[in-house]
């Protein structure tokens, strides 16, 4: 039996613990925070309950695989409900569409809402994206990445033509999408990896395909139930999960890990260490030596992902018309999407070399609203819903916290003023909830950095900006024998399904005890 220490109890770490315990390893999970889940956070106040990270489940088969591999099926542990409307989009010209949660219904819905032919355009794009999915899913999303991965995928001319790696996501979509509203819909999927659609690779077309092909799902009561279920599965297999324990260093000798040392001075011996922490923290703080420094230099060549600014809105007395306009997920697009990406990444007219001063909060951002119609997350339950109670999570893309080179989110008054600006933008776009706000909590990128230890609050570690960006993302196998990385900053990327796949890949690399 090998001794395994998992550093971090995010979903990637918990899934790793469950899989490795099922393979017969002795597993201990150490989490710095007092709660599990990592970015899959929850906030409760006055009877209102908010998911503070992911707000839906996509690719449910990934979680089904996890539970099947470790015991009883997913359905025995978590209730998943498929959304009939995956997202309600509102465009700058005032048009909008309720995008169905089932892929076969999407073309007709687009034609009815946006005009004849738009459904045909989107279906043609999804067909192209499905072809990329067929090529890339197994060798990239479900397998370790290595020096030969790109060469192997590029050696087949048909595969190369299908993926078209020389095109950005926006360029890839433009081959099929002539309607600017459809292009905006596609652009937003780059932000799922913290990226700029003008620089992100064509392979990210698989993100909307996967979401629409496999559906958008919600967990009643909030997605925290999914993290709790994975933790329960790990514990049932013998894993120990300890919260409030911060790892200060990962020890190694002769090119092999030997254990970890906590901030309190406790040493835990280990044959294997699985780091569910941001890769820059792993190689910049937890592991010392030349191998770690080389990995850190490689990380610094990549563009950090964007961050997010969040409002948690406790609402009361919402009138029926506002409740009806608040689908579970809603996206309110700006007039100038490019300006948003320029501001967040500090390029274009915001570039320092151009005198623009670098990254900054977006004045007219895209607004993402999650407004679950879930009686268990508002005070009063069903009666509370009926009288207009709401626990809304509002997100906008934001530059990472970087006081020296970019946005200083700790500057006095900035977060509060920006929160007011977001409410103004929502009102300007037909979703004015200001008269019904009981209270507001703001969460800036600086707050995210402090709560999750993600540098700058960068949600996904590194972005996918650049055609080879995916191959700059840290591999799951570290530079020391016995060291592995899982989570959003490691291969294959961020988001609930991908961090869960990182655990599957890593467990496969480690193997049975």
From TrEMBL:
Pathway: Carotenoid biosynthesis; staphyloxanthin biosynthesis; staphyloxanthin from farnesyl diphosphate: step 3/5. Keywords: Carotenoid biosynthesis, Oxidoreductase. It catalyses: all-trans-4,4'-diaponeurosporene + 2 AH2 + 2 O2 = 4,4'-diaponeurosporenal + 2 A + 3 H2O. Pfam families: Amino_oxidase. Its cofactor is FAD. The keyword Cell membrane does not apply. Residues 12-302 form the Amine oxidase domain. GO terms for biological process: carotenoid biosynthetic process. GO terms for molecular function: oxidoreductase activity. Belongs to the carotenoid/retinoid oxidoreductase family. CrtP subfamily. This is 4,4'-diaponeurosporene oxygenase. It comes from Serinibacter arcticus.
